[in-house]
Amino acid sequence: MKLSIIAAVAKNGIIGKNGELPWHLGSDLRRFRKLTIGKTVITGRRTHESIIRRLGRPLDDRRTIVVTRQNNYESECEVAHSLEEAIQRARNDDEVFVIGGAELYKEALIVGDRLYLTEVDTTSPGDTFFPWENKVLWRETAREEYSSDENNEYATRFLTFERKVLALSSYINMENARQEDQRIVMEHIKETGICPFCPENRVSGEVLDPVWTGKHWVFVPNRWPYEFTRVHLMGIAERHVRFIHELTDDEWLEVRMFIDWAIKQYNIESGALGIRFGNPVTNGATVDHLHIHLVVADPDVTRPGYERVRFAMGPKPPQK
């Protein structure tokens, strides 16, 4: 699934005033319709209500998911209580659009794949701004420019941006290496500039041989298991994914199939699952490729130096 963001923004960053668009741009409305028709759109409650006020109904020929914190919010459209929940509901779609407002845009810009932006040639008064802070993470791929006319009160630029592919060296985060031999191996992999978890790049020995293989995942023993574990397996997606919302229903189903197998195979009464996704700086991973840890702690507390198993996350503090 591709998560796209679509917005019209003035030169001073304004996207709205009193819950409404501060301009009339016929060409932008046509572009919006052309891009979103037949798709799922995710909208915040206030943006949804402004559409209802303007049109008297939800957007036609589109599936609308309204995101709100209100537990008892009533709508003829689907209701979700977070962007993540809305994305999960639409995860089998080819492309899903976030259409506002500002708070939802801010969340979507962290995980989105594509941005359709209309730059409006005005410094419009308003009270709502487009929260685009990390422009360096995006690459412009298309641009069209239009003059003002009787249907467009301002000149506009239609821009398309794609999230930049990570620099090759960023597939590996050395800060999260826990052991010296792990650090040596990871330094070597980092020099190759490839993702070692992608199936076409896996090297036997660097990634241990699978104990379970499916269509969408392989599960392998962790080469550097956490101390004081009885079982520590790692599930690696068979394609390069980074975020939860990229996983399909079939991929989730296969995880469940593996867990059922592992519980029987390793006689597991209790354990824990940890999914590392997103930015390795904060998720604790050494490899920037979504993966799952299945961990079963060793119950023998009499082992020398025994400590509880800990799943490290978060950026490392600077060394003093």
Distance between the termini: 43 Å
Reported CATH architecture of the largest domain: 3-Layer(aba) Sandwich
Secondary-structure content class: alpha/beta
Task: Please tell me the overall pLDDT.
Answer: 91
CATH class of the largest domain: Alpha Beta
What is the fold named in CATH at topology level of the largest domain?
Dihydrofolate Reductase, subunit A
* Unreliable spans: none
Order of helices and strands: EEHEHEEHEHEEEEHEEEHEHE
In the sheet with the most strands, the strands line up as 5-4-3-6-1-7-10-9
The named CATH superfamily of the largest domain: Dihydrofolate Reductase, subunit A
Helix % is 10-25%
CA radius of gyration? 24 Å
Return the domain count: 2
Strand content: 25-35%
- How many beta-strand elements? 15
Count of separate DSSP helical elements? 7
Largest sheet: 8 strands, mixed
Give the overall form. Answer: elongated
How is this structure best described in words?
- The protein is elongated, with a radius of gyration of 24 Å.
- Strand 3, helix 2 and strand 4 (63-67) form a beta-alpha-beta unit.
- With 320 residues, the chain is α/β, with parallel strands linked by helices.
- It starts with a strand and ends in a 23-residue tail after the last strand.
- The chain has 7 helices and 15 strands.
- It has helices at residues 26-36, 45-55, 83-89, 102-111, 180-192, 249-265, 280-283, and strands spanning 2-10, 14-16, 40-44, 63-67, 78-80, 95-98, 114-120, 128-129, 138-146, 156-163, 212-213, 217-221, 229-237, 272-276, 291-297.
